[in-house]
TrEMBL record:
InterPro entries: DUF202, IM_YidH-like
Membrane found in the keyword field: yes
Protein's name according to its UniProt entry: DUF202 domain-containing protein
Main location: membrane
Signal peptide: none
UniProt cross-references to Pfam families, sorted A to Z: DUF202
Organism: Oceanobacillus halophilus
Membrane-protein topology: Multi-pass membrane protein
Length: 127
């Protein structure tokens, strides 16, 4: 009889499999950022559509502001998704090389999102 160990294929441990929990957390973070980007794009469409369906309050300044917010939201949403993908790839390499450091850029990006939310608030206050 042959030994079980010789008959079975030896499992090859990859670098990714050593840090499976970190990689899965990184993937969840990527998906959360993608959802955030899609939500930002949706808010842009929502603001533009709400503005132009409210015929009684159309002003030239309001039209321009609604268009700027709509375009800026779409652009910001796309940038968010692209940055999320780039960050994901960088984190995969950092996790595998054990050189991961907590990102400070994320805090700055979230601060920008807060500023945009304030702009949306001002826009709705003007209406």
């Amino acid at each position: 009889m042959k030994e079980n160990g010789k008959n079975e294929k030896q499992k090859q441990i990859t670098t990714d499999s050593k840090y499976i929990q970190q990689h899965m957390a990184n993937e969840r973070t990527l998906l959360a950022w993608i959802r955030t980007g899609i939500a930002i794009i949706g808010v842009g469409f929502l603001v533009t559509n709400l503005h132009f369906t409210m015929k009684s309050s159309l002003t030239k300044l309001g039209d321009i502001l609604a268009n700027i917010i709509g375009v800026a939201s779409v652009v910001l949403g796309i940038i968010t998704i692209v940055v999320a993908i780039i960050t994901y790839i960088q984190k995969v390499n950092a996790i595998n090389n054990q050189t991961f450091r907590a990102p400070r850029h994320t805090i700055i990006l979230l601060g920008i999102f807060v500023i945009i939310a304030v702009v949306f608030g001002i826009y709705f206050a003007i209406l």
